[in-house]
């Protein structure tokens, strides 16, 4: 399950793997309902009307409802003040029916993103973006309460496909706080030897070529070419780039950071875009929310039983 292959690499079916995770989660949610009379709750906050953000938020809320969790929606106008957003976060922090809080990024320019993310209770930080959770992710022997969803989804794909990590060379393309950096830290925890390349790296190609595991998260359409890939490598493509395509009704097409057609001929495993990492990000968000709820339900002082 979760893959197909005719020529070249095994194509990792992230959508199918995410669906089976959704089923596992739905079972646990119904167990919680039967035993505690409560379900996990996920609050998704969106500020403004960016089309891509609205699409992603809609997908998250739908997935949440489908597994039987409670979805709490906070929709604020693009000109909402920082104080207004903070007030909503505080209210969600105090709400016993909320176990996860996600503030969709990017926030409008006038809002200090760091200030908002710092305000989310670490017990409800299902994105894993709070500096305390990130800090623990980077430290040996420390366990964050939540691991960021996209990086966790990348690792989950490797684990479920039984792709070895320990002792392997991994190269991460990109070093953002939400993808590149945390995925590199996670691969390090799983005992890969990790390099990070970025926009000032002089020869990305030759470094990527040495990797047994490539994580592409640069936000550059089809930047990683077939001849960058070591034969047999695992290629995980995080990129979601919209490129113009006059043959499509919408006038655009979604592509990854990897030239899929070329790389598939060389790689051992590869994720498609769409249908690879994207669905796993949502599955991990639900998993984090479930974990947060289970921690809350097992606390005696949480008296909302
Ligand atoms: N599928 C999913 O669930 C998700 C997908 N994404 C997608 O992943 C991609 C990355 O997202 P995000 O991390 O937020 O992006 P950012 O723009 O925040 O970071 C991009 C990173 O890539 C590096 N970079 C940019 N150009 C190059 C280049 N030519 N060569 C090498 N490195 C380069 C940048 O380097 P520097 O630091 O020097 O600027 C930066 O570290 C995007 O396409 C995004 O849409 C993001 C989140 C979730
Ligand atoms: N606080 C916060 N947390 C995030 O996790 C977060 C965020 N902000 N801002 C934006 C990025 C992006 N992101 C994606 C999630 C799912 C898909 C996804 O499911 N994509 C589908 C395709 C969707 C389509 O067709 O457009 C796929 O790849 O198959 C993509 C991207 C989460 N992000
Ligand atoms: Mg970004």
Give the total of beta strands: 12
Q: Give the number of helices.
A: 10
Q: Major sheet, described briefly?
A: 7 strands, mixed
Low-confidence stretches: none
Family: Belongs to the tetrahydrofolate dehydrogenase/cyclohydrolase family.
Pathway: One-carbon metabolism; tetrahydrofolate interconversion
Function: Catalyzes the oxidation of 5,10-methylenetetrahydrofolate to 5,10-methenyltetrahydrofolate and then the hydrolysis of 5,10-methenyltetrahydrofolate to 10-formyltetrahydrofolate.
Subunit structure: Homodimer.
Describe what this molecule looks like in 3D.
Homodimer. One of its GO terms (molecular function) is methylenetetrahydrofolate dehydrogenase (NADP+) activity. It comes from Ceratopteris richardii. Pathway: One-carbon metabolism; tetrahydrofolate interconversion. The chain is an alpha/beta fold and 305 residues long. The chain has 10 helices and 12 strands. The chain has helices spanning 14-36, 51-66, 82-94, 113-119, 131-138, 149-160, 180-189, 204-208, 260-264, 277-297, and strands at 3-4, 10-12, 41-47, 70-76, 100-103, 169-173, 193-197, 213-216, 234-237, 241-244, 252-255, 269-270. Residues 55-56, 59, 102-105, 127, 149-150, 240, 254, 273-275, 278-279, 281-282 line the site of 5,10-Methenyltetrahydrofolate. The site of NADPH dihydro-nicotinamide-adenine-dinucleotide phosphate has 26 residues, from α10.
């Amino acid at each position: 399950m979760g893959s197909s292959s005719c020529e070249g690499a095994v194509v990792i079916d992230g959508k199918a793997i995410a669906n089976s995770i959704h089923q596992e989660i739905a079972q646990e949610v119904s167990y919680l309902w039967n035993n505690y009379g409560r379900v996990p709750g996920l609050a998704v906050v969106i500020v403004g009307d960016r089309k891509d953000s609205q699409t992603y938020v809609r997908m998250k809320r739908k997935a949440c409802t489908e597994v039987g969790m409670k979805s709490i929606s906070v929709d604020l106008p693009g000109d909402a003040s920082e104080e207004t957003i903070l007030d909503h976060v505080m209210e969600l922090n105090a709400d016993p029916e909320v176990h996860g809080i996600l503030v969709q990024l990017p926030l409008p320019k006038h809002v200090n993103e760091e200030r908002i993310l710092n305000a989310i209770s670490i017990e409800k930080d299902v994105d894993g973006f709070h500096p305390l959770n990130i800090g623990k992710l980077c430290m040996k022997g420390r366990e964050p309460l939540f691991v960021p969803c996209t990086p966790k989804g990348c690792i989950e794909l490797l684990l479920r496909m039984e792709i070895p990590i320990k002792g392997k060379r991994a190269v991460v393309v990109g070093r953002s706080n939400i993808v590149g950096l945390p995925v590199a830290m996670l691969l390090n925890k799983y005992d890969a030897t990790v390099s990070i390349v970025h926009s000032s790296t002089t020869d990305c190609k030759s470094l990527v070529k040495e990797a047994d595991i490539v994580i592409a998260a640069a936000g550059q359409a089809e930047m990683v070419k077939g001849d960058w890939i070591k034969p047999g490598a695992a290629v995980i493509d995080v990129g979601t780039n919209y490129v113009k395509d006059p043959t499509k009704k919408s006038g655009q097409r979604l592509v990854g950071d990897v030239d899929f057609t070329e790389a598939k001929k060389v790689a051992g495993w590869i994720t498609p875009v769409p249908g690879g990492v994207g669905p796993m990000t949502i599955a991990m968000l639900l998993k984090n929310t479930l974990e947060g709820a289970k921690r809350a339900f097992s606390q005696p002082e949480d008296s909302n039983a």
